Amino acid sequence: MRYAAESTPRAQILIVIFNPTAGRRRAHALWRVLDVLSANGMRLELAETQHAGHATELARDAVRSGAKLIVAAGGDGTIAEVANGMAGGSARLGVIPLGTANVLAHELRLPFAPQAVAAALAFGRTCMLWPGVATLPGETRLFVQMLGVGLDAQVVHGMSAPLKRLLGKGAYVAQTVREMSRYRYPKLRIRLDGEEMDAASVIVSKGRLYAGRFTLAPHANACLPGFSVAVFERYGTMAAMMYGAALPLNLLPRMPGLRIESVSAVEILGDGGQYAQADGDPAGATPISIRNAASPIEVVVS
């Protein structure tokens, strides 16, 4: 593989941000894409993350140094970290989908085959992605696909990295079964555009999809400001099992006890006892205030 020379301006370099702990299979997929890009004359710089949040720092440094295209090689969490570092800049975001669920990649219909991914990054058209911004106790973070509070967040917080690497999507099923029996299903108080209501769980979504290719909010549009909020009104293990069974059948939006609201601002209230997940990664706890990002991010698609 050919790297850019030290004297090459970063504006002319494709900067790839990758988490080296993702596992051998994903690293192999990354190298296949980079080999194609390098063989076609692209100048590359591979930046490996060393800790949580490092992808944001790397992306921010790349923007400051004049980078025009920054590529997130990983899953939704890696993409969100990179997007956090790019917010407010003019660089384009590229994606090499290497995650477990790859929800955003499916949402934007991004290619997965190495040759197609390389072609998209080299010559692809772009679309505008309008993220959400969540303000939590002690931090503000951007999310690109969804933020959830309730059982799904409990599952994400309880997930071990080795189990996720071993079982892939199956790890979420195993962890969900484990959490269902011990989760207490506390009542959430939420506020949607100022209207208060109770919920068992809530998922604030930018896009149509959830947990891979499964439909959650059929009318959502990730390219526009605003959110589709899935309000789960039924409590308990039986309700969670019912919702879970409907998801892979793409029947979840039709299930009784589920409301989907289109709003521009969300508040999830609480005393800090309710975990949150954003783009499949742990994201602190309530209370949470959610608004639109100040501007969209240009994403390379296909």
Quick structural overview:
This protein folds into 2 domains: 10-124, 3-Layer(aba) Sandwich (Rossmann fold); 133-294, Sandwich (Tumour Suppressor Smad4).
Description:
There is one protein chain. With 302 residues, the protein is of the alpha+beta class. It folds into two domains: 115 residues, Probable inorganic polyphosphate/atp-NAD kinase, domain 1 (Rossmann fold, 3-Layer(aba) Sandwich), CATH 3.40.50.10330; 162 residues, Tumour Suppressor Smad4, CATH 2.60.200. Helices cover 30% and strands 30% of the residues. The chain contains nine helices and 20 strands. It has a six-stranded antiparallel beta sheet. A hairpin with a 2-residue loop joins β9 and β10. α1 crosses α5, α2 packs parallel to α3 and α6 packs across α8.
